[in-house]
Structures are given as structure tokens and as C-alpha cells.
Amino acid sequence: MNTKTLIDTAIINSTTSGSKGLADRLFTHWFSRLVYAQIWEDPKSDLDALQLKPGANILTISSGGCNALAYLSANPAAVHAVDLNAAHLAMLEMKKKAIKHLPDYDSVLAYLGNAAHSDNLKRYQRHIRPHLSEDASTFWESRSLLGQPRYRYFSKNAYQFGLLGDFIGFAHMFVRMMGGNMKKLLEARTPEEQSRLFDRYLAPVFDTAIFRFIARQPVALYSLGIPPSQFAALKHDAKQGLHLLFKERMRHLACDFPIEENCFAQQAFGRRHDTSKQAALPMYLQKQYFTSLRLNIDRVHAHHITLTDFLRKQTNASMDAYLFLDAQDWMDQQQLTELWEEVTRTAAPGAKVVFRTGGEESPLEGKLPAHLISAWHTDVAHNRALYATDRSAIYGGMHLYQKV
């Protein structure tokens, strides 16, 4: 099944009608290309929540692939990375082959961390291209809208490409037009400076009339991967207006974690990874994890399929951990029920599920049948504590469920 068809099956459901139906179909068209060059959920928070034992079987959504690779540090038996979008699986494979076949850590950091070095073209041609699958090779060798082969992204800062990269670039330009400057936040050296620079260079933009207008348009958030159904959840939480909700989430990203140790803030405000500081790198690129990632790299398995269809192929009680990102925000009641029937069937004793939501509340209690929800335990207070640790800071909630 191709990417467009898979995304259609996920987005177009019982809620697709009227004006939302048009918005849903526009989103599926928009989302059928490379969206995320890097993932925007914090794998450290995931691993802290899951407390995995060696030998675990993990199911995750791939997205940009960073988290699927980071989970290898827990020495799992397998990480199954599922995605509706073949471009994301090509990105995962590029990162996987770089870790496996480039000569050493420094060359991996230059290729995947800096991702803007001219020598990366030679690294791709000599060490990566010969090992790519046919599908991934077709993606990376084909030409982008700019007319050059996509593998050249890695000589031009790969993380500035894709819909999210374009969105962040537009955000920088828009903030400058409004008199602010997102890059100024990287000058902070203390938490107090982070707050001061946020209030000076970014916070006022959220209160402008033009931003208030943009914040009310669902299409404006498509490049963040936010479909109409998730936009509705954001509106539900935005009692005082979406512009204030977005301001507080951006404040969370900019001010609530040391900025020099937050790879998400580095990308949002600097549009690059800071390779001069290990703590500023995403987990899968930190040197302390390199040996375990390279040793376990073949335990990552990519699947171009829906979560539910993947689980239908698995045996009873065979999975230990599930990471659903924010995919459940896209689902109607029938889709959620079908997914959790398979999750409950395939979950090993004590298995855990971690996911994010655009709004603060989990959708499960309101939509799952009693016989399914009663098989799982969650702790709302603990979930709030987990959310406070997620450095990506763009969601309204992080939720952990454990098999009873």
C-alpha cells in the first residue's frame, strides 16, 4: 500500500464530513511527503517511563527515526518502527546505515549531527549508498522540488528540509518581521536569561493580531503534522485563545529546561544540532550511546503499515512496549478500539504504552469500551510528572498505561 493510501486510511474516518472532510483530505495530501527529518518526542522521557528490561520487544512509530534508534541503548530484542509515510522510513534507513557503515563516531556525527559538511557527499557515496534498500535508494536518489538529489540534504543541513524544517524556517522569518529574533534565545547562559530573552524576543509575537489570526487557521499547522482532529483538541484546551496556548508551550520549550542541553530547543531556535556539546545532541547521536547503537543496529526493523495491521500479525503476549507518539489524536472511536484490541491481545504481562496528546487529556477513557480500558492502569498525577520531563514541550500531555 502506498503512502497516500495509508495516510487516507488513518485520517479519513467517521468524523470526516462537511468542512472537516475537506480539511482532512487537504491534510492527507500535505502529509504525503517528508515531514519530519527529526522526531519531536523526547526518547529520554520515553525510556524513563518504560523502564525497559534487556530483551524487550518494542513497537514505535518511526517519524524521523531518532527515537527508534535511541531505544537501542536499552538493549532490546527488537525495535519495530512503523510509519504511514515511506519518506520517514527512508530517513530512518539513512540514519541506520550511517551508524552501521560509516568508519567511526566522528564521521557519524559529521554526517547526521552537523549534516551540512561537503565531505558528507563522499561519505554517502562510499559508505551508505551501496547498503540502501531499493525503496530508500529510490527516495534519496530522486530529485526534490529544488532539482537536486535528496541525499544532498546531508551536505546542506538536512534538518532544515521536510515540512517541519520549512515551518521552522518560516517561523524565524515571521518572528523577525514582527520585531523578534528566535536565535537570540540561544545566547542564554542561565534559566533567568532564558526567561528574559523569551519575554524580550519571542513572547510579544504571540500577542500580535496577525499571529492571533494565523493561530485560528488549521491549515497553518499542517507542516507540524497536526491534522484537523488534533487541532480541535487544541482548541478545546485553549480557553483564553490558541495564541496563548501556543505561547505557553513555546515558553515551556524555551525556559523550562537548560537550553544548552535541549536538542529540541537547539533545532527550534538555532535550526541545527550543536555538535560542540554532547549534551545538546539528540540521544542517538551522543557518544556515550554509540557503541550500543552500533552493536544493536540490526535490531531496528522498518514497516510501511498501520499500527493495527502490524499488530494483527503478531502473536499473543509478544510485545513489551508501545510508543504511539500522537497518532491516537487522529483516530475515531472505531479506529482506537481496533488498535487497543490488538494492543491488549499482544501485550506481555506488565507491558507499557506511552503516547502524547495535543490536548491535556487522554482520549482512551472517553472512547475505549470498558472491557479494554479495564485491562490497563494509568496514573494521572504520574502522567503530569512525565509530561514535565519531555523537553520537546510541544504537546499538551504525555500518558503511560500499563497492562494490569
How does this structure look, described?
- It contains 20 helices and seven strands.
- By secondary structure, it is an alpha/beta fold.
- The chain has a seven-stranded mixed β-sheet with strand order 3-2-1-4-5-7-6.
- Helix 1 (3-11) runs antiparallel to helix 2 (18-31) and helix 5 (86-101) packs across helix 8 (134-141).
- It has a domain at 162-272.
What's the helix and strand layout?
Layout: H1 3-11, H2 18-31, H3 43-50, E1 57-61, H4 66-70, E2 78-83, H5 86-101, H6 105-114, H7 120-128, H8 134-141, H9 162-177, H10 191-201, H11 209-215, H12 228-237, H13 242-255, H14 263-270, H15 287-296, E3 300-304, H16 307-312, E4 319-323, H17 333-346, E5 347-357, H18 364-367, H19 370-373, E6 376-377, H20 380-387, E7 397-403
Parallel strand pairs: 1-2, 1-4, 2-3, 4-5
Antiparallel strand pairs: 5-7, 6-7
Share in β-strands: 5-15%
Q: How far is it from the N-terminal to the C-terminal residue, by CA?
A: 35 Å
Order of helices and strands: HHHEHEHHHHHHHHHHHEHEHEHHEHE
* Portion of residues within helices: 40-55%
Spatial strand order of the main sheet: 3-2-1-4-5-7-6
Structural class: alpha/beta
Shape: globular
Count of individual helical segments: 20
Low-pLDDT ranges: none
User: Main β-sheet: number of strands, strand sense, barrel status?
Assistant: 7 strands, mixed
Number of strand segments: 7
Indicate the radius of gyration in whole angstroms: 20 Å
- Compute the average pLDDT: 93
